[in-house]
C-alpha cells in the first residue's frame, strides 16, 4: 500500500533555559498547531495487519523570537537583566534571536485491526530533527536537536474502489524530554547555558491510498 496524508498536529511544550553564570532560569509554556502533508508506504496481510513508514519533509516552521539582554563586563555572558538596566550599569546591550523548524519527520508504525469493520489500532515511533537558527549576542549556540516520540492511535479505513482506500485517524504523541547545552563556557569552564523541554501532542490525519 502507498498513499498521501493531510495532518494537523497540536503540540504543547513546557521548557526552560538556565543561564550559565547567573543561574537565572526562565520558564515558558507554549502550544502550537501545525498542518503538513506526508507520504506513507506499508505492507499488509489479508487479515489487516500492517507495518508501515510515513515521511514528512517539513513538519513545522516555528516562529522567530527576539530578546534583548545585557552582558556582564567580566565574563561577557548574558546575565538576564532587563535591557533598560544596561545603561545604568554601563553594560553592552545585545539582541538574541532564534527560530527553528522541525523537518524530516519519520514515523514507523504497526496497524492492528479490530474486528473486520475497518477499525484499527496504531502504535509507532516518530523521529524528527529540530533545526535551530540563532544569533546570540554572547556567541553561544545550541545545536540541532533530535526529537523522538511514541505514537498511539485509533483509526478507521474504508474503500473508495477495488484498490483505493481512505482513512481517518487520531493519535496521541508523547515526546522524549529534550536537553541541550550551549556551545560557549562561562566564567567557570564547566558552566554552560542549558535548555530543557517536555512535549506532548495530538494528531488528526486524513489519508487516501492505493493497494497493489
Q: Can you give the mean pLDDT? A: 82
Shape: elongated
Strand order of the largest sheet: 1-2-3-4-5-6-7-9
Number of strands: 9
Percent of residues in beta strands?
A: over 45%
Task: Give the proportion of residues in helices.
Answer: under 10%
Distance between the termini: 6 Å
Oligomer: single chain
Q: Strand-and-helix sequence, N→C?
A: EEEHEEEEEE
What composes the largest sheet? 8 strands, antiparallel, barrel
Q: Radius of gyration from the CA trace?
A: 22 Å
Are there runs of 5+ residues with pLDDT below 50, and where?
73-83
Helical stretch count? 1
User: Helix- and strand-based class?
Assistant: mainly beta
Task: Please describe what this structure looks like.
By secondary structure, this protein is mainly β. About 5% of the residues lie in helices and about 70% in strands. The protein contains 1 helix and 9 strands; from the N terminus they run E-E-E-H-E-E-E-E-E-E. The chain has one helix at about 85-90; strands at about 1-20, 25-45, 50-70, 95-115, 120-135, 145-160, 165-175, 180-185, 190-210. It has an 8-stranded antiparallel β-barrel. It starts with a strand and ends with a strand. The model is unreliable at about 75-85 (pLDDT under 50).
Distinctive features:
single chain; mainly beta; 9 strands; 71% strand; elongated
Topology of helices and strands:
Layout: E1 2-18, E2 25-44, E3 50-70, H1 84-89, E4 93-113, E5 119-135, E6 145-159, E7 164-175, E8 178-185, E9 192-210
Antiparallel strand pairs: 1-2, 1-9, 2-3, 3-4, 4-5, 5-6, 6-7, 7-9, 8-9
Amino acid at each position: 500500500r502507498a498513499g498521501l496524508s493531510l495532518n494537523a498536529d497540536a503540540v504543547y511544550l513546557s521548557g526552560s533555559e538556565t543561564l550559565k553564570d547567573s543561574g537565572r532560569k526562565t520558564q515558558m509554556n507554549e502550544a502550537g498547531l501545525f498542518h503538513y502533508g506526508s507520504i506513507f508506504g506499508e505492507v499488509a496481510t489479508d487479515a489487516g495487519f500492517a507495518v508501515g513508514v510515513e515521511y514528512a519533509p517539513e513538519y513545522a516552521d516555528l516562529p522567530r523570537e527576539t530578546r534583548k539582554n545585557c552582558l556582564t563586563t567580566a565574563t561577557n555572558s548574558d546575565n538576564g537583566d532587563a535591557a533598560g538596566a544596561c545603561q545604568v550599569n554601563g553594560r553592552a546591550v545585545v539582541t538574541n534571536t532564534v527560530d527553528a523548524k522541525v523537518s524530516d519527520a519519520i514515523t514507523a508504525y504497526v496497524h492492528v485491526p479490530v474486528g473486520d469493520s475497518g477499525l484499527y489500532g496504531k502504535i509507532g515511533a516518530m523521529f524528527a530533527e529540530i533545526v535551530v537558527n540563532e544569533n546570540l549576542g554572547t556567541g553561544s549556540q545550541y545545536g540541532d536537536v533530535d526529537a523522538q516520540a511514541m505514537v498511539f492511535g485509533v483509526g478507521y479505513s474504508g474503500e473508495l474502489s477495488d484498490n483505493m482506500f481512505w482513512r481517518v485517524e487520531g493519535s496521541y504523541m508523547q515526546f522524549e524530554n529534550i536537553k541541550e547545552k550551549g556551545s560557549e563556557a562561562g566564567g567557570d569552564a564547566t558552566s554552560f547555558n542549558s535548555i530543557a523541554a517536555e512535549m506532548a501532542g495530538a494528531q488528526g490525519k486524513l489519508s487516501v491510498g492505493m493497494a497493489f
